[in-house]
Specification:
The protein is an alpha+beta fold. 15% of the residues lie in helices and 29% in strands. It starts with 7 loop residues before the first strand and ends in a 6-residue tail after the last strand.
């Protein structure tokens, strides 16, 4: 079964895109033959699966290409046979079954699967694979639509009224009236004597030499000791009330957890890097409330002014390609990674994620609000440690005219313990400006921070532009120039807000250069763990 990235989209465009694609196919929907079999003797219930595809069924698709997983009580569902509806050998179906399949509106696209046994009420997954034991889909099948979830009991009534019925309810006995606030010797003695007055009204002796009174006082003495012990044990028996560290440690050991002795405050820090790949040494000091590189004097002044010092706990490889990473949504609009997600797809344009490996830490961050005029939610940041990275992923649906994949992708996964605690919005917001065609042009943004807007220029086969450049100004007369940005993408990293961006150069007809749209959320690499406090050398 293929492991798919989990997305929830308001506009599922991928199904319609695959349906319209000339090559790719996939599973449209699946039917379980159940109630029809009740009316036609000889047909087994819940053992015939009708898999409807977007395109005609390949002639070589058979039982070896079907994998069924899932189930709670009934697992390991075995496939007896599987054939395209138009090529089922004689003798496998009854005449009624043959007529039922022949009446289907999409017989060329229908794939019939017969299983050895029906499943239970839980959810199962049917996946089409290249061969038995493989995880990859068959050739020309979309990797996201090659599997489908279904239930064998979809047509079964399920009231699920499992409340037990007591035919003979137990007789309710009269409970004694006991003062549960009694906690010491005198209150226990009084409680016992009051109870004996009810159960033995004829016994009225209260002299200290009486055997009955002696037994009452002996029990009150024992209860007093037990009450003290009970209070002490009850206090240490719960994590919220325990007063002794050894008690808390023992609670943790019951759950196979070795309690840590404590540490300073720690934080995940995403380091922006420009230039060749380098290693950030362990013990590098990081300061709050500032930016840039400080010398010894500036460092001391920042500390005196109240900046907190953190130090990195491990060396960290820094790669410019991991500063800010876009998330890929497989062509759907209005997407989000749902709460609890443990998989995602990253855009690996130009192979810039080649240094990303399992064990690395990524931070998902909402960098701008999906609603215009609002600031991003600072609580929508979450760090995950990757358990797997697949840099060979591509999207076969969207192709360049040459037939080469338009986007290189990276499939990533992380542990369920790092599952997203919130839904991460993956929309892209149009900054509101673009420029297409030949020649020079000017676009002005008012009050828009261009720090995250990307420059891109696509060039057709007619040729490359000559002496082309971008420039932007408006920060007190200061002008920034970014030469030779085409055809590669650039980043307006130093551009302030409320400025004019000028396009200039020699452009050929058909060139397209644009700004945006900007993503709501991104992933950040170059993440290092930092510890509060600074090392003082004597």
């Amino acid at each position: 079964m293929t492991a798919c990235t989990e997305y929830r989209c308001d506009n599922p465009l991928r199904r319609e895109a695959v349906r319209a694609n000339a090559v790719l196919s996939g599973i449209d929907y699946l039917e379980v033959v159940d109630e029809w079999a009740l009316e036609h003797p000889g047909s087994p219930r819940q053992r015939t699966l009708l898999v409807h595809l977007f395109k005609p069924v390949p002639a070589d698709l058979g039982a070896a290409n079907v994998a069924i997983s899932g189930g709670t009580r009934v697992t390991g569902i075995r496939v007896k046979w599987a054939w395209p509806a138009a090529a089922i050998p004689a003798g496998l179906l009854t005449p009624d079954e043959t007529a039922m399949i022949a009446a289907a509106p999409d017989v060329p696209n229908l794939f019939v699967v017969r299983v050895a046994q029906a499943g239970d009420f839980s959810t199962y997954t049917l996946a089409l694979v290249q061969a038995a034991g493989s995880l990859a889909p068959p050739a020309d099948f979309d990797p996201k639509l090659s599997s489908v979830d279904f239930s064998f009991k979809v047509e079964c009534p399920a009231p699920f009224d499992c409340a037990p019925q007591q035919v003979c309810p137990p007789v309710a006995l009269e409970e004694p009236r006991i003062d549960y606030l009694a906690k010491d010797y005198s209150s226990f003695r009084r409680l016992l004597l009051d109870r004996l007055s009810v159960t033995m009204p004829a016994w009225t002796e209260r002299g200290t030499a009486d055997i009955g009174v002696t037994l009452v006082e002996l029990l009150a003495y024992a209860a007093d000791h037990l009450s003290y012990y009970q209070d002490a044990v009850a206090t240490e028996a719960y994590l919220g009330t325990a007063r002794r560290r050894v008690s808390v440690r023992r609670h943790a050991r019951l759950l196979d957890y070795a309690m840590h002795d404590g540490c300073n405050a720690r934080a995940w820090v995403s380091v922006g890097w420009s230039g060749e790949t380098a290693v950030l040494p362990q013990g590098t000091p990081l300061l709050t409330g500032g930016s840039g590189v400080l010398d010894a004097t500036g460092y001391a002044e920042a500390v005196e002014q109240g900046a907190r010092v953190f130090e990195t706990l491990h060396p960290q490889l820094l790669d410019e390609g991991l500063n800010e990473i876009d998330l890929y949504t497989w062509g759907d609009d209005g997407c989000s990674l749902p709460k609890g997600a443990t998989r995602a797809t990253l855009v690996n344009d130009g192979g810039r994620l080649s240094k990303l490996q399992a064990g690395a830490v990524l931070v998902f961050e909402e960098v701008r609000s999906p609603q215009q005029g609002l600031a991003p939610d600072p609580a929508h940041r979450h760090a995950v440690r990757l358990t797997s990275v697949d840099l060979a992923a591509t999207d076969p649906l969207y192709l360049e005219p040459t037939g080469a994949p338009q986007q290189r992708l990276a499939e990533i996964a992380w542990d369920v313990g790092d599952a997203l605690p919130f839904a991460l919005n993956l929309q892209r917001i149009d900054p509101g400006a673009s420029h297409d065609g030949a020649g020079a042009g000017t676009v002005t943004w008012g009050g828009t921070n261009l720090r995250s807007l990307r420059i891109a220029l696509r060039i057709d086969a007619a040729g490359a532009p000559g002496a082309a450049f971008f420039s932007w100004s408006g920060d007190g007369g200061k002008t920034f120039n970014a030469s030779q940005l085409m055809p590669a993408a650039g980043n307006l990293a130093d551009a302030p807000s409320g400025i004019s961006v000028v396009f200039a150069g020699q452009f050929v007809a058909g060139d397209v250069y644009w700004f945006g749209p900007a993503p709501v959320s991104v992933a950040r690499g170059n993440v290092v763990l930092a510890d509060d406090g600074r090392t003082m050398l004597g």
